[in-house]
Amino acid sequence: MTCIGDWWLSEPLPKTSKLRQLHSKAYDWGAPQLERQSGGAGYQGRMRYKVRAAINEWDLLRLYPDSRPETVGDEFRHTYEENVDLQRESQDDNDG
Q1: How far is CA 21 from CA 7, 15, 83, in A?
Q2: Model pTM?
Q3: Do 62 and 94 touch, CB atoms closer than 8 A?
Q4: What is the pLDDT, as a whole number, of residue 47?
Q5: How far apart are CA 55 and CA 69, in angstroms?
Q6: How far apart are CA 31 and CA 25, in angstroms?
């Protein structure tokens, strides 16, 4: 049995097959089965990351068939703290 956290490592689940089918239909081409990648830790284990990585790889393969794309990502965290540098008046504001 396959759990969601391991879906990228094992046989394709219906969700990934459906995603590949939708991408193929949307662009009128046969999206290939992607090589399995390790699930990763943290954000790389999230379904959103895996879906975006698959779509990006298919897009690159569709546009550049001879390429071998590889997804590399960094987690972005926003703190929602006030940035005082953005509150300063710029020189451009004084000119107009």
Answers
A1: 17, 10, 44
A2: 0.58
A3: no
A4: 79
A5: 11
A6: 9
